[in-house]
């Protein structure tokens, strides 16, 4: 099954049935259609077998000390940092890709790990020890509330206040959207229109995306040279049940304007 077909099949599953490993690898497969996703999944199975004890400490020791995964502080914005296969090859990644690897290898070892999408940084929580979080970008160090606040202020400013909501669990779809958003930013900076196009399409395909976000992505598709696809999105949004009539009219007008550019 090709990557786009498999992606559509998986992303439509109920949230509790989603696994981050294959979805993240399918993102990589959109960048590299020759990627052998099943082989990469088996690679994660091998890592879990190497962990030995089914403990968070053992998995962290394997990934960050034996394998040597670490945060890429030099070429942070490199798209490779968002591709799990590249992260494993280079031993370098950004917080969210390193967190996905920890969560998925941990899942195979029987651990209950979950993502924590704090603003500006991504962490992992062990549900058996919820007061401490794991920072995969810093070689798996354990961080408490004070350290989380310092991480927040490093990106959001010295007056930023850490709230409980910032440390809430992040579901699989939100994790995938955040990974795609990171790639969106990377490709924009590189003026990589081809890659930005498939990322935009993937972002639109994730269920649960709000109306304003969908409209923004439709406008992005329009700017990228796909007015018909943008118009389809506008028309779908305009047909939402219970939508205010004035909003529906504006969306319908945007759809007409987009299609007009094709003539």
Topology:
Blueprint: H1 3-11, H2 20-31, H3 37-50, H4 56-66, E1 70-71, H5 84-90, E2 92-93, H6 95-108, E3 113-116, E4 123-126, E5 133-135, E6 141-143, H7 145-156, E7 169-170, H8 172-190, H9 193-205, H10 211-223, H11 227-238, H12 245-260
Parallel strand pairs: 1-2
Antiparallel strand pairs: 3-4, 3-7, 4-5, 5-6
What is the number of strand segments? 7
**Strand order, sheet with most strands:** 6-5-4-3-7
What shape does the CA trace take?
A: globular
The number of helical segments is: 12
Helix content: 55-70%
Q: What percent strand? A: 5-15%
Helices and strands: which structural class?
alpha+beta
Major beta sheet summary: 5 strands, antiparallel
What are the low-pLDDT stretches, counting only 5+ consecutive residues below 50?
none
Total domain count: 2
Termini distance?
A: 36 Å
Q: What string gives the helices and strands in order? A: HHHHEHEHEEEEHEHHHHH
- Residue-averaged pLDDT: 96
CA-atom Rg in angstroms: 20 Å
Describe this structure as you would to a colleague:
It is a single chain. With 263 residues, the chain is an alpha+beta fold. The chain folds into 2 domains: 3-170, no CATH class; 172-260, Serine Threonine Protein Phosphatase 5, Tetratricopeptide repeat (Alpha Horseshoe), CATH 1.25.40. It is 58% helix and 8% strand. It contains 12 helices and 7 strands. Strand 5 and strand 6 form a beta hairpin. Helix 2 runs parallel beside helix 8.
């Amino acid at each position: 099954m090709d990557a786009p077909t498999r992606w559509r099949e998986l992303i439509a599953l109920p949230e509790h049935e989603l696994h981050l490993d294959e979805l993240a690898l399918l993102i990589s497969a959109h960048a590299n259609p020759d990627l052998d996703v099943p082989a990469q999944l088996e690679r994660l199975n091998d890592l879990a077998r190497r962990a030995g004890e089914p403990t968070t400490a053992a998995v962290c020791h394997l990934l960050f000390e034996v394998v040597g995964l670490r945060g890429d502080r030099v070429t942070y914005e490199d798209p490779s940092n968002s591709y799990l296969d590249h992260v494993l090859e280079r031993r370098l990644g950004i917080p969210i890709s390193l967190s996905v690897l920890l969560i998925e290898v941990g899942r195979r070892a029987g651990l209950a790990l979950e993502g924590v999408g704090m603003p500006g940084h991504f962490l992992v929580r062990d549900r058996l020890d919820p007061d401490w979080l794991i920072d995969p970008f810093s070689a798996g160090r354990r961080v408490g509330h004070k350290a989380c606040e310092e991480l927040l202020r490093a990106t959001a400013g010295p007056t930023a206040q850490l709230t409980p909501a910032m440390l809430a669990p992040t579901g699989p779809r939100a994790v995938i959207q955040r990974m795609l958003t990171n790639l969106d930013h990377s490709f924009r900076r590189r003026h990589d229109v081809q890659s930005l196009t498939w990322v935009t399409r993937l972002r639109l395909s994730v269920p649960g995306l709000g109306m304003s976000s969908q409209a923004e992505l439709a406008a992005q598709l329009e700017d990228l040279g796909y007015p018909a696809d943008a118009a389809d999105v506008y028309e779908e949004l305009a047909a939402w049940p219970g939508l205010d009539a004035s909003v529906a009219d504006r969306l319908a007008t945007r759809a007409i304007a987009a299609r007009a550019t094709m003539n």
